[in-house]
Write a structure and sequence with these properties.
heterodimer; A: alpha+beta; Aldehyde Oxidoreductase, domain 4; 7-stranded mixed β-sheet; 30 strands; 25% strand; B: alpha+beta; Enolase-like, domain 1; 5-stranded antiparallel β-sheet; 12 helices; 27% helix
């Protein structure tokens, strides 16, 4: 009997999704639902002096206009310890608790009405008088006075610096050197499903239908906001239409919906507008990174110096792992890496696919391309020459590392040997052709997770865990795991997730769902199978025939007059993280075509080869990876937040003006997997797949642009004006 | 969105009368108007739905083509005679928006679409076009997409239409129906420069409707093309675009029509470039020399100076194609 694990099983939730039967957050309409629309601050710093709601309240259907002047003071009890998804220093924005404005777009009032259009009209009629102050909205200026993050004793705090050896001395002595600064603008998740919340109070209990990647955290965070026990709050989120990290935290609008529901004594729906979403949630922070590489004549690295400056808000210190890639990617004997923060009057950034890692990896991989040229080496040869056989920073062996195979498979499939040896050395008609490549890594994580499995009278199994599925295919993958553990057909497994009443699960983020929840599902189903077998040792379960197995389970339960048999298991990581450095790796190859006269650029081919442990479902894995690669293409060529420095306001807060790649920007996008089975992170052999797919894409494309044109562009995105050297 | 009355007039007389009322707005495809209403960037108390009016035909005559104002962009783009005799128009249409938008949006509405200036669509910030007298933050702000030609201290918003640029190069005329008269005016005189009143964008009188566009059939129009340069490959407005129409006599250019988009506050014809082309040999050196003249009156701001060079390259690119050179 063939395992379902490893097979391209169709999405089990696919039919529901294409038929519109999958119920997303804003699809929920409990009886008596009222609608809330946010009034957002128009200034970046100062105070609200007056809020005139007379005209707004006169709109037919308006129930209430809530703001700091009439909102209840909420408990906002501190969470101890802080959640892994919340910044460790500073305080989250407290909704409608005072008159302070900390960033443009901050929610300052909420109009609640019978109908959404009435609420929108009322929100537009709220007249706000501000006392504005000079805001800190210019990243270039803010980065001049960047400072180290404040240290915190909270768990999951990140080091602000990494050191090994004397990198400055080694750099000064190096015969080959690269010293360059790379700019990356703020990027926004722009998931197709907008964030939204429906809040309903039943006496002192709160139900939230909320777009979230982590129902358990949402529950606990909102319980702390209102100062009520965790189990008074239930969070439901069975489907998420893309999130990429934006739905990890419980954002201010979630508390606003719950507050509104409390005040108007009805269920309230709150869905920020697309423009409001750019400041209602977080984003990838803008950064400038100076990278210095020192190497011998042969290209062997002797020094890496990496200085990152990233923006954060004035009320929270959001930090990322941007300095980690420079410590882990290559075998440099010395390293100095520093992370600095530039606080600004902006909303707090948050994780966005491969947070920090994609940023740091970008700088390292762009600089490596420059070093390859300085040393007269093929970029791939340079990387092989500096291959890290172990994690030099953690001083640990890799749990597994098949990056060499990724390079080899990628180079072969892509035809890397055909790379134009000199910049702007190949033409095809009006197009200049360029090849580029980059390495990628993403640290693999696992967290405790629980699952419940229930064998039913008909021999089917219901498996549950409070996990999430923002699109990668959690439903399908967990169904495969359960079906294999119990030797059942796919159709005999029903997996349920996204409800805080279910057995607890970690954040559906950080690429750790499969290793964490998958291990729990595997364990619960194995235990259930053992229990079933123990019911009657004389019966031999036909483990090699899935339909027969389903019948056998049904007969067993019937014979023992049981209507069900259950098992619940918590699966925890072991000490593997202390014994090994565990990472997914990848190699990305890009071919670009550029018309040097008209600055037209096409990414003709994009190939990612990944070693990420066992691939549970190659079909959903491919989908997940090409999606991530398209995100990387956007990072390279189109995406950027444009703040007006004087108004302190993000000016392109719409899908028309914040440009993500469209189909016409994609030609060939291909993802391959190198076989791996890494048992260190859990019984399934997985390392996690989501984040890695965005890493390395932007530098591969930008390096290809250099190969095509001979122009080093160190500021993303690479727009036509930069290709022509005009901006 | 504010509440509005909705009416569906039976004929153009009724439509013009209704359109002349304060707060009235005509709606056809609605692809631009509805987002503006939703964002509050435009307020209308009455929407007059003109989709029932008989202006959706495309007619071809020896003298030229009549494109009904209510024909959908996708219908015009699929018209074989337009493709054959006025290729710049079809190319400009196909380079516009997305197939879904083109299925709804109309030819008349396309000429009246509002600017993509980032400050115009965000009601939290000043904009002289949206709120006269409030100021122009684009002048010293995020003005990479803004105009280098035809701007004023009150407004440097570009006109966003691709179609209008092609029509400008082809000497098209706009047919207008008002309450009391019908008139035709050259497309190049239809849009106004912003001056001190950037909120007034066209010469349309209250209640006046665009009912058709007339494009004269010329030797030039048959040899026309539209080139659009932008930040992504589709579904994006022009960073810079150029329409070129040339009439050739052997390897000499007898006459040329050149217009540019994405760089000016209205569809921008370039007579000095045309004059340099007329009578010259159709060859790269001619195109380069003529395109050089395009940037003379340009007044760039901090972030859009690159458009001068990009515009010249777009003109050369369009001429190369229209002149049928390899």
């Amino acid at each position: 009997m063939k395992n379902f694990i490893g097979q391209p099983v169709d999405r089990v939730d696919g039919p529901a999704k294409v038929r519109g039967k999958a119920c997303y957050t804003a699809d929920v309409h409990p009886p008596g639902l009222a609608y809330g629309v946010i009034v957002a601050a128009a200034i970046a710093k100062g105070h609200v002096v007056r809020l005139d709601t007379v005209a707004a309240e006169a709109v037919p259907g308006v129930i209430s206009v809530i703001h700091h002047g009439n909102a209840p003071q909420l408990a906002y009890a501190p969470m101890e310890p802080r959640s892994m998804v919340d910044p460790k220093v500073g305080e989250a924005l407290r909704i409608f608790q005072d008159d302070a404005v900390l960033f443009s777009g901050q929610p300052i009032a909420l109009a609640v009405a019978e109908e959404p259009e009435q609420a929108a009209q009322a929100a537009a009629l709220v007249r706000v008088t501000y006392a504005a102050e000079a805001a800190n909205s210019d990243f270039a200026r803010a980065s001049q006075t960047a400072r180290p993050p404040r240290q915190s004793a909270q768990p999951w705090s990140r080091p602000a610096e990494l050191r090994r050896g004397d990198a400055d001395a080694a750099f000064a002595a190096a015969p080959r050197r690269v010293d360059a600064s790379y700019e990356q603008p703020a990027e926004f998740h722009c998931a197709i499903e907008p964030h939204g919340t429906i809040a309903r109070w039943d006496h002192d209990h709160l139900t939230l239908w909320d777009k979230t990647q982590w129902v358990d955290h949402d529950r606990t965070a909102i319980a702390h906001v209102f100062g009520i026990p965790d189990d008074y709050v239930r969070v439901i989120c069975p489907f998420v239409g893309g999130a990429f990290g934006s739905a990890l935290r419980a954002w201010p609008h979630v508390a606003a919906a719950a507050m509104a529901s409390l005040l108007v004594n009805r269920p309230v729906q709150l869905v920020p507008t697309r423009r409001q979403l750019f400041s209602a949630i977080g984003y990838r922070p803008q950064t400038v990174q100076r990278l210095r590489l020192g190497a011998g004549e042969d290209g062997r690295l002797t020094a890496v110096i990496h200085e990152v400056v990233a923006q954060t808000s004035v009320y929270e210190e959001y930090t990322e792992a941007s300095i980690e890639p420079s410590a882990m990617l290559y075998a440099a004997p010395t390293l100095r890496a520093d992370y600095r923060l530039a606080p600004m009057n902006v909303n707090t950034p948050c994780p966005m696919r491969a947070p920090g890692i994609v940023t740091g990896n970008l700088a390292v991989e762009l600089a490596m391309d420059e070093l390859a040229e300085t040393c007269g080496l093929d970029p791939l040869k340079l990387r092989l020459r500096n291959y890290a056989e172990s994690d030099a920073q953690k001083r640990l062996p890799w749990s597994s590392k098949s990056l060499r195979q990724c390079y080899a498979v990628g180079a072969e499939r892509f035809g890397w040997s055909q790379r134009p040896a000199t910049a702007s050395g190949r033409r095809h008609g009006r197009w200049l052709i360029g090849y580029g490549m980059a390495s990628a890594l993403y640290p693999a994580h696992r967290a405790p997770a629980s699952a419940h499995a229930e064998l039913r009278a008909d021999g089917t199994v219901a498996v549950t865990s409070a996990a999430g599925d923002m699109g990668p295919g959690t439903y399908t993958a967990m169904t495969q795991v359960a079906a294999d553990a119990l030797a059942l057909p796919i159709a005999a497994v029903h997996f349920e997730l996204g409800d805080s009443l279910l057995p607890s699960a970690p954040a559906h983020g950080g690429s750790m769902t499969m290793a964490s929840v998958g291990s729990a599902v595997h364990a619960a189903c194995q235990e259930l199978r053992t229990k079933a077998q123990e019911l009657d040792q004389r019966v031999r379960l036909p483990g090699d025939d899935r339909l027969a197995m389903q019948r056998a389970y049904a007969q067993l339960l019937a014979r023992h007059r049981l209507d069900r048999l259950t098992a619940e298991t918590e699966a925890k990581p072991g000490e593997e993280a202390e014994r090994y450095s565990i990472c997914a790796f990848g190699a990305v190859f890009a071919e670009v075509r550029i018309d040097p006269d008209l600055a037209e650029l096409r990414v003709a081919r994009l190939l990612g080869v990944y070693a990420a442990g066992r691939i549970i479902n190659p079909k959903t894995a491919r989908s997940q990876c090409i999606g991530g690669m398209v995100g990387g293409l956007g990072m390279a060529l189109t995406e950027q937040g444009l703040w007006d420095d004087r108004l302190g306001r993000l000016m392109n807060a719409s899908l028309a003006d914040y440009l993500m790649p469209v189909n016409a920007d994609l030609q060939s996008v291909e993802a391959l997997f190198v076989p791996e089975n890494d048992r260190h992170l859990g019984p399934l052999g997985v390392k996690g797949l989501a984040e890695i797919a965005v890493v390395g894409v932007a530098p591969a494309i930008v390096n290809a642009i250099y190969n095509a044109t001979g122009r080093r562009i160190r500021s993303l995105p690479v727009t036509p004006d930069k290709i022509l050297g005009l901006s | 969105m504010q509440p509005f009355r909705y009416s569906r007039p039976g004929d153009s007389r009724e439509a013009c009368a209704a359109g002349a009322q304060p707060g009235a707005a005509f709606i056809a495809g609605g692809t631009d108007l509805l987002p503006l209403l939703k964002e509050g960037a435009r307020v209308a108390t009455g929407l007059i739905d003109i989709n029932g009016l008989p202006f959706a035909d495309i007619r071809h005559e020896a003298a030229g083509a009549w494109i009904g104002a209510l024909s959908r962009m996708s219908d015009a783009a699929a018209d074989n005679r337009l493709r054959q005799d006025y290729p710049a128009i079809v190319e400009a249409l196909l380079a516009s928006a997305s197939p879904q938008v083109r299925n709804l949006a109309t030819i008349g509405g396309n000429l009246l679409q509002r600017t993509r200036c980032l400050y115009f669509r965000d009601t939290a910030v000043p904009c002289n076009k949206r709120r006269p007298g409030s100021g122009c933050p684009a002048w010293d702000g995020q003005n990479r997409g803004n105009a280098i030609l035809g701007g004023s201290r009150s407004c440097i918003a570009t006109h966003a239409s691709d179609l209008a640029v092609a029509l400008a190069a082809l000497d098209a005329r706009v047919v207008l129906q008002g309450r009391h008269r019908r008139r035709q005016i050259p497309l190049t005189e239809f849009h106004r420069l912003p001056g001190d009143t950037p909120d007034i964008e066209t010469v349309l009188e209250p209640g006046e409707l665009i009912i058709a566009v007339f494009v004269p059939a010329t030797a030039c129009s048959r040899h026309s093309t539209y080139l659009k340069l932008r930040d992504r490959a589709s579904f994006e407005w022009a960073l810079t675009s150029a329409a070129a129409a040339v009439e050739l006599d052997g390897n000499r250019i007898r006459r040329a029509g050149i217009a540019v988009g994405g760089v000016a506050t209205k569809p921008w014809r370039l007579p000095q470039v045309e004059a340099a082309l007329a009578g010259a040999r159709s060859e790269p050196a001619t195109f380069r020399a003529a395109a050089e003249l395009a940037g003379q009156e340009a007044e760039p701001r901090q972030r859009n100076a690159f458009k001068i060079e990009l515009m010249k390259r777009a003109i050369i690119g369009a001429l190369t194609k229209a002149g049928n050179l390899p």
